[in-house]
Amino acid sequence: MKKSKIVGKKTGVFCFVTVMALGLAGCGEKSPLDPKDPVSLTVWHYYNGSQQTAFDALVEEFNDTVGQEKGIYVEGFSQGSVSDLETAVRDSIEGKVGADAMPDIFSSYADTAYEVEQAGALADISVYLSEEELAQYVDSYIEEGRIAADSSLRIFPTAKSTEIMMINKTDWEKFADATGASLDTLATIEGVNATARAYYEWTDSLTPDIPEDGKAFYGRDALANYFIIGMQQQGVEIFQVENGEVTINVPEEELYRLWENYYVPMVKGYFGAYGSFRSDDVKTGDIVAYTGSTSSAMYFPDQVELEDSSYAIDYIVMMAPVFEAGERCAVQQGAGMVVSKSDEKHEYAAVEFLKWFTLAENNLEFGCVSGYLPVLKEANSTEMLDQVIASKQLTVAPKTYDCLTTIFQEMDGMTLYTNKSFENGSSARKVLEYHLADKAAQDRAVITAALEEGKGLEEAAEPYVTRDAFEEWYLSFCDALNEAVK
C-alpha cells in the first residue's frame, strides 16, 4: 500500500532486535508483568452481532494462550453504537455520577481520540513499540495515530476500512442488455452521474403512460467522505492542519464539481437516499448501486423486497469511483484502539494484547467476519487471506471475501488518505455530512411535487441547478464550516 499523505514526525523507541524478540518493555527494560499476579484489562468497543462474536472469540483465545503465559486477562464490553461508546468515554473522563471508570482500552476514531488526548487521558504507546515493530504496520495507519502534540503515537491501528462500490448485478444486467451500458463507465464519478441519468431515462421509458417516473440508480453513504476525498482527488486538502490549527480550504471551482456531481443528480432523481444506509435502498429496489465502507459488504442484500413480491439478486464489487483525471485517492477510515493513561504495568499489558490482536492471522480472522482490512503490511494480500482461511478452517461470506480481495488487488495503486485531527473536527465533519444532503432532500421534495403537478423534470429542476443556485449554497456552506471550527 502507498503511504498516506498525512505527514507526521516519526518517533519511537530504538531497541535491539534481540530485546524486541524477548518481548521486553522499552529499551532493555524487563517486562513489568508477572504471570503469578495477572493484570486485568477492560476493553470498550462498539462491535455488535457477528463482529462482537468474532472479537470475543479472539479475546478468549488470547486469555487461554499468550495472556495466560504473560499474566494478562482481557474482558471486552460492547457499548452499543459508536456514539454510545463516545458518550460513555466522555462521561468517564468528566467523572459524571453513575459513569463507569475509564477502561484500559477503548475503540476510538481519531476525532474522539484527539479530544481525549487534549484532556490528558491517553497513554503514549510509542514507548512500548520499537521502530522495527511500527514499520510492520501500514504507514498511513500509524501516521493517523500520531495525534499528540509531539507526534507520539496515541491510536493503535487495529482494523481499517476504505470504500468500495457494490452493484445489484441482476438489475444492472437488465439495464446493460437493454442500453449497452458498461461497467467501465462506473470507474469515474462523472461516469456514474451519466449512467444514473441514462438509467433514470430508461426506467422512465418502461412506463410511457406515466411521465417522469424514472428510478434512481446510485446512492452514497458518508457524504463527508465524498467531500474530503473528492477534493483530495482534485489536489485540494479541505482541512489543512498545522500544529493542531485548521485552515478551511474550499476553492469554489473544485467544490462546484462536487456539487454538480452529487446535488444535481440527487435533486433530479438520478441518485437517491431513502433508508438509513444505501444497502437498505438496494434491498428495497430504490437504487442499483452505492458507494460505502468495505465493512458494509456483509449488509448487501441477497434479494430485493418489493411491497408485494421479492426476487434474488447477485452482486458486483468494484473500487469506489474517482473524479476524471483525478488522483487515485481513497478514504482511510475505521476506529483504532487507544490505551488509557494509567501505570506501566497496565499500559504495557494493553499494548501486548493489541500487538497480538493485530498479528496477521488474528487480524484477518476478524476481517473475515467484519469486512475490515488488516493493519499489518504482510496481511494485506489475497494469498495471506487464503492461508488464514485454510489454516483456521474459516467460513467466509463470499461478499466479504470478494470485497477484501478487490481492495488487496487494487490498493497498491491507491493513496489512502484521512485528514489530521483538530479541535471541533467532529462538528466540521457533520457540516460535510448533512449541509448539502439536507438541502438536496428538501429541494428534491419540491421538485417531486412539481412533477406531480405535470411539469417536466428539466423545468421543475431548473431553478435549483443553476450556477447562481450553487453560489448561494456555496456561501452558506462556507459560513457553516467556519462556524463549526470556531
Structure overview:
By secondary structure, the protein is α/β, with parallel strands linked by helices. The protein contains 20 helices and 15 strands. The chain has helices at 17-21, 49-64, 66-70, 82-94, 110-118, 131-134, 139-144, 169-179, 189-205, 223-233, 252-260, 263-267, 278-283, 344-357, 360-370, 382-392, 398-410, 425-452, 457-461, 467-484, and strands spanning 39-45, 72-78, 105-108, 155-156, 163-168, 218-220, 239-242, 245-248, 289-293, 303-305, 310-312, 315-319, 329-331, 336-339, 415-417. The strands form 5 sheets. The chain has a 5-stranded mixed β-sheet with strand order 2-1-3-14-4. Helix 2 (49-64) runs antiparallel to helix 15. It is globular. Residues 1-28 have low confidence and may be disordered.
Concise synopsis of the structure shown:
The protein is α/β, with parallel strands linked by helices. The protein is 45% helix and 13% strand.
